[in-house]
Amino acid sequence: MGVVGFTYGGVHSSVFGIVCDPTPRVIFPEKRRAITDIAGRSGHYAQTDGTYLVRQESIHRYFKPPIGKTVPELAREIAAWLAADARLEFDNELGKYYDAYVSGALPQEQNLRYGEFDITFTYTPPFAYTEMKEVRGTISASGGVIENETEGTVDTPCRIIIQNTGRTIIRNFRISRRLE
């Protein structure tokens, strides 16, 4: 199933009467690779550091203006809405969002009653986010463990803030990562 609707910059596409074609989605972005051709050898040498290129998705959209508004007028409003970089959420990916921007121009076809266009979103970083979560815990002088589990499918950066609320100097502190 493709995209039903989306929210960009806090505004849902239905506000503009936009309907989306059920188009295929990109499962994951292309891996970044350094390619080196070696004389006398077939193929090439490919080296990767495990990172990815930007992710782009094009989706076909239709819109029909309300009574009293023309297709060009509504098209300009849509263009203004999509002009800034913003948070992008798809209706069929609950709890996930992307940092996105519109790539390239928005070519539009129109007739008297409706307009249509292809929009290409670029996500960078190229993966979906979930809301940030906070894990709090207390480690006493006798030790302790605080665990934080993520549900992502890609290595995810995290921010760890350690606050000493006591009067004793923290020593022998260790942060470890366990992959399952």
For this structure, what is the CATH class of the domain at 6-123? Answer: Mainly Beta
Biggest β-sheet strands, sense, barrel = 8 strands, antiparallel
Number of E strands: 10
Task: Fill in the CATH topology of the domain at 6-123.
Answer: Elongation Factor Tu (Ef-tu), domain 3
Please describe what this structure looks like.
This protein is mostly beta strands and 180 residues long. It has a domain at 6-123: Elongation Factor Tu (Ef-tu), domain 3, CATH 2.40.30. The protein has 1 helix and 10 strands; from the N terminus they run ββββββαββββ. Strands 1, 2, 3, 6, 7, 8, 9 and 10 form an 8-stranded antiparallel sheet that branches. The protein has a two-stranded antiparallel ribbon with strand order 4-5.
